[in-house]
Amino acid sequence: MICISGLLYDGHSSRQIAAQLIYEDNEIVVKSEEYSQAYLLDDIGISPRIGNTPRFIEFPDGSRFETRDNDSVDQIEADIPASNKNQLVHRLESRMKYVAATLVFVIIFSWAFIQFGIPGLSKGIAFSLSSNVSQSIGTGTLELLDEWAFSESELSDERKDALHKKLLTVLPESSEYEFKLLFRKGNAFGANAFALPDGTIVFTDEIVELSQHDDELVSVMAHEVGHVIHRHNLRRLIQDTGLAIVVVAITGDVSTSSSLLLALPTLMVEASYSQAFETEADDYALEYVRKNQIEGMHFINLMTRLEVAHGIEEEGKDTGDRILDYFSSHPPTNERIKQFSPKTEQ
Amino acid sequence: MEDQTEQESTPLGTQTHDFQFTGNAKEYFKIWIVNICLTIITVGIYSAWAKVRNTQYFYGNARVNNAAFQYLASPIVILKGRLIAFAVFALYILLASFYPIFEAVFILLLAGLMPFVVVRSMRFRMRNTAYRNIRFNFTGSYGEAAVIFLILPIIVPLTLGLMYPYWQFRAKQFIVDNTAYGTTNFKLECSSGPFFKLYLMVFGVLVFTFIAVFIISSAAPNVGTLLTPVMMFLVYSYSFAFITASVTNLIFNHTQLAHHSFNSSLNPNTLFKIYLVNGLAIACSLGLLIPWAQVRLAHYRAECTQFNAVGDMDNFIASEQQQVNAMGEEFGEVFDFEVGL
Q1: Is the dihedral of CA A302, A304, A306, A308 positive or negative?
Q2: Top-confidence residue, B335 or A337
Q3: What are the pLDDT digits (tens) for A30-58?
Q4: Dist CA A68 CA B1 (whole Å)
Q5: Averaged pLDDT, A77-88
Q6: What integer pLDDT is reported at residue A73 of this predicted model?
């Protein structure tokens, strides 16, 4: 016989009655001073055990019994075969070794999934789709940029024609992408080059003016072609979506104020994904310049000048800026330059 | 564990009952981490059960006048809602990235659905909350929700934000007045005046900070670049804590449930400290201290809330209930519309 004291509510009014629940031989009797009612064990519902929160026992007539005597309720529940699986989660939660194991599992899984799972999956997905998909992302991006940021190129037609000829040699001989080369005045974007998903590559007037040798632009072109061929835009889309889903799944219903702070780690991961893409594009460019006997120095020179133009100087960087590197979309320039320097080329 | 409910009798026959939160971070951490683990193993399916379990932990530990709250939502219903919301989200991501122009259309569609989403999610949450075996209810109409969540947000910018406090007031009033415990409606006995006063103060502090920051950065540009972001962050988070504390106090202190009433005495400074430390702890622990932070906040909020019962609390009557599916609420979650006090 199990006897539990608790509170009884009839379900029609909020009246609270001190009551006893007595369990014996598959029968539950609820008793108070003026009341007594018997139920079959099979007809009652027991709320799951969650930590030490009160348990609610529901009866077919809509009344409910509330008690904090969890252990006695567990004993009754042990006699209901269907309820046993409900206890499984509580057993996991209440044993320190299981909790430690789940903690280790969650940490390792999250790390591995973010580090390898998401990039790997998105690469797999991106390349299993036809190149048309990759090329159709961001339809209208160029139009938007033209409207809001760029203006018409002010380079002379001869210069543009010459560059066209020179830069188009970088394109792979046969390719599923329809590459297109455009020149625009970058304005707010300054000296820069962009690869749009559909294979359109945009050089700004500013970067053309900044360059001192056409091979500098050739190496940048190779870098941008690398972005297109590796389908980085599509992969970025898949990765960032995947990451958002993982963060929401793990943190669940976090209040808005704390989810704001989770944005920080999320941004770091997104930046690290972006840096990996830049490195991949750099590798493509490196392979190209080596194959075509173009000096790696050209890429280095332009990179160094770009840094100055964008107002970032590696020397004299303080720790604050180094921390910011983790949030940057591009790897630190000195690391990128190292790749192209003659020493490592051997 | 025994109840430590303080019961002070006043001459009017009013008894004051403290809200209590009896949960602790260690216990909740275990529940939380096991939930995440099972969610991962089941590729997300378990997340609906996890949500119910986490919510049940907080409800079950919230007590007032010798009784706990109960969360009754069915995980299956939540799962269905989540799947629909997930499909809509995926569709949005795809369409928005392939056709950026569609993003605007989609946002408009979503905004149009807003009143529906708010009403359905409130109804779902309230009908699945019980206290002393009597469920809460939400009776707000789509029409009034449309006025508050569609029309007023369009009018507010036209008045250069002057109507913002009024809009906030209407939104809170809509939530409180349409919430019922059983068949008894809550009533917000408050005009929009205090809301105007409150937001005016916040506006004043923000303007003052902007001017101060502007003066400092033009006088000493080096100090300014370092100081500005820090100052701005602190002022914004403080304003957030200040508004949350003041609005919550304002609403609770003016809400009636039949003859009963509430007290709320959240301190903006304390709340700000809790937010700040919670935020730092969560960011530095990459999320592992979320349970600790949530429990800490729940403790403080319960500590500052009281229920003033006039006579006994035995006379609330249950209403006829009908099932609401979880779709409304889970839409709200995926697209991060927070409704509530």
Answers
A1: negative
A2: A337
A3: 998 888 999 998 889 999 999 999 999 99
A4: 8
A5: 77
A6: 92
Lowest mean pLDDT of A75-84, A312-321, B300-309, name the range: A312-321
Phi, psi angle pair for A140, to nearest 5°: 95, -5
Q: Which amino acid is at A183?
A: F
Instruction: Compute the distance between CA of residue B205 and CA of residue B215 in angstroms, rounded to an integer.
Output: 15
In this prediction, residue A217 carries a pLDDT of 82
Could you please report the per-residue DSSP string of A245-298? HHHHHHH-S--HHHHHHHHHHHHHHHHHHHHHHHHHHHHHHHHHHHHTT--HHH
What does DSSP assign to residue A188? G
Given this model, what pLDDT does residue B93 score?
A: 73
Pairing of strands A180-185, A200-204: parallel
* Residue pointed to by tokens 């609005």: B247
Instruction: Give the chain B residue whose CA is nearest to the CA of A111.
Output: B286
Backbone angles phi, psi at B306, to 5 degrees: -135, 155
Strand ranges (E), B195-281 = 255-257, 260-264
What pLDDT does A165 receive?
Answer: 82
Q: How many CB atoms lie within 10 A of CB A310?
A: 12
Report chain A's mean pLDDT, rounded to a whole number. Answer: 80
H-helix or E-strand containing A151? strand A151-152
From chain B, the residues in CB contact with A140 under 8 A are 99-101
**B106 near B95, Cβ under 8 Å?**
yes
Contact yes or no for A282/A223 (Cβ under 8 A): yes
Question: For an interface test with A, which of B4, B22, B26, B30 has the most A Cβ atoms less than 10 Å from its Cβ?
Answer: B30
Mean pLDDT of B5-17: 63
Q: Which two tokens stand for residue B175?
A: 């939530």
The reported pLDDT for the residue numbered A104 is: 94
Instruction: Tell me how far apart the alpha carbons of residues B150 and B161 are, in angstroms, rounded to a whole number.
Output: 15
B305-320 burial: b if 16+ Cβ within 10 Å, else e: bbbbbeeebeebebbe
The pTM for the full model equals 0.79
Q: Tens digit of pLDDT for each residue in A173-224? A: 777 777 888 888 888 777 888 888 778 888 888 888 888 888 888 888 888 8
Per-residue pLDDT, averaged over B26-49, amounts to 90
Query: CA B231, CA B162: separation in Å to the nearest integer?
Result: 26
Measuring CA to CA, how many Å separate A80 from each of A20, A212, A297, B76? 20, 82, 77, 22
Distance from CA of B142 to the nearest CA of A (A): 25
Tokens of A280: 């991949």
Distance CA B155, CA A269 (A): 40
What's the CA angle centered on B136, arms B132 and B139, to 5 degrees?
Answer: 160
- Choose among A118, A21, A124, A37: nearest CA to A73: A21
Tokens 């590798």 belong to residue: A283
B34 and chain A: CB distance < 8 Å anywhere? yes
CA angle B146, B148, B153 (to 5 degrees): 105
Please report the residues numbered 170 through 199 in chain B whose beta carbons come closer than 8 angstroms to any beta carbon of chain A.
181-182
Kindly list the distances between the CA atom of residue A297 and the CA atoms of A161, A193, A300, B139, in Å, as whole numbers in the listed order.
25, 19, 5, 72
Whether the per-residue pLDDT at B191 is higher than 60: the answer is: yes
User: Which of B63, B70, B79, B97 to mutate against chain A (most A CBs within 10 Å)?
Assistant: B97
CA pair distance A105, B124, nearest whole angstrom: 34
